[in-house]
Amino acid sequence: MSENVQDACVIAVANQKGGVGKTTTTSNLGIGLVQQGKKVLLVDVDAQGSLTASLGYHDSDIFEVTLATVMGELLCEEAIEPTKGILHHKEGVDLMPSNIELSGLEVSLVNVMSREMTLKRYIELVRKDYDYILLDCMPSLGMLTINALAAADRILIPVQAAYLPIKGLQQLIRTISRVKKQINPKLEIEGILLTMMDYRTNYAKEIQTLLQEAYGKNITIFHTTIPLSVRAAESAAEGKSIYQHDPKGKVASAYHSFTEEFLISLNGKEKKGGFHR
Ligand code: ATP
Ligand code: MG
Could you give the CA distance from residue 177 to residue 166 in angstroms, rounded to a whole number? Predict the structure, then answer.
């Protein structure tokens, strides 16, 4: 795709359940895509700023420009430079960082016109410069997550293979259908990624089977699963991707395989319908 002058495919990494691997998947899929020669922007759509911190930017509270700044300026109809505030990470991804100011912005969105579309307006400014833009969503279905779903072409749903995900998933899928009907008809679920798989237990495999039975007919459940490993948790704490922290380990290898599977999945669907405008 780099050789074509096409707009980026925008992917929201979403699940309102907390701690399922959204941020870990966003950063390692993003860097995996860079390793495949793609130009990638990661956007931290979470006021916790975990994506920003997991890439080593631990001092995000002092950033002059974050996602809250550019979204705030768009709300005030100010013109902004597309590159404003974007950080260039040493592993090749670009990042629009966030910090706690984003929660204030979310509150102020409630009373504005087209409140669901503000992030989309930002993405439209930058999407011509990238092949892929990944949106790391927060664990809620609040206004910022709705903004991410409104701005996205595809949704990737990480599911932790350690609890029964069925109920929460139904709620997420209902929200996605509502957004698709009302504000973003092109939105599609790309698939479900099982994370933190403990292959020693039968439980993890049972959940895989259960998911397949409940959703497999309509939603892709990726073959690649991400194993549970303390190395993954360490890498986020160290501010490095898994490829840097433990390049020969099983999580790096899983995210590498997942990146390939994800690209094949996207390209297959692109041929059928296309996500480009
Ligand atoms: P939140 O909902 O709070 O945004 P999240 O869905 O983004 O959470 P992560 O932050 O990616 O989830 O992961 C939750 C925790 O689990 C983190 O401490 C992370 O380092 C750890 N973790 C992520 N993937 C794995 C894994 N494969 N094995 C072990 N620990 C992991
Ligand atoms: Mg997160």
Answer: 16
Query: From the CA of 138, how far away is ligand 2's center (Å)?
Result: 6
Mean pLDDT estimate for the chain: 92
Per the rule left: phi > 0, alpha: psi between -120 and 50, beta: everything else, 191 is: left
Q: Does residue 18 line the site of ligand 1, with CB under 6 A?
A: yes
Which one, of 83, 176, 64, lies nearest residue 122 by Cα?
Answer: 83
Ligand nearest to the CA of 159: 1
> Rounded to two decimals, what is the model's pTM?
0.95
CA of 243 to the centre of ligand 2 (A): 19
Tokens at 213, concatenated = 């039975």
Residue 227 Cα distances to 24, 193, 230, angstroms = 12, 11, 10
Q: Give, in order, the Cα–Cα distances in Å from 201 to each of 162, 198, 204, 205, 235.
A: 10, 6, 6, 7, 24
